[in-house]
Amino acid sequence: xxxxxxxxxxxVRTLANELYPDLVGxxxxxxxxxxxxxxxxxxxxxxxxxxxxxxxxxxxxxxEARIAGIDYFxxxxxxxxxxxxxxxxxxxxxxxxxxxxxxxETIEGLEGADYVPHVTLARGGDLxxxxxxxxxxxxxxxxxxxxxxxxDGTYKLPVSRVSLPA
Length: 166
Description:
Strand content: 25-35%
CATH topology: Cyclic Phosphodiesterase, Chain: A
Order of helices and strands: EHEEHEEHEHEEE
Number of helices: 4
């Protein structure tokens, strides 16, 4: 599965690392952190997929994003529950997501109107622990999203980047 992801600054990764002791009871704790912007699907020709995404992103400006706190999905549409995450507020990212959903098929329940920008911290485990972690106060982290990554989910690596002009 290929996707377009938002790289996060070191301050977000540092926050995730600081929260690690509270997350060890979950089935899976993420070590790599980014914000999934849009799933693109699988492709025999990655270059064609990237070209379509580049066209959809043409003219998209750099946007502001903010970690607003910690939250959780009690019953996510895919995978184990609960999912604990850093909530990302960004009307600009939501707008870019909408542009990408115009160019690529929308995954029901996850994208389009159901899209929630976030950075996953952990999944699977105890709901009460998820609630306790979500109750923690964190200092907001603001940053400018000036580039996006094309992500190869099979190898869990970025395959290229696209700049968003300031």
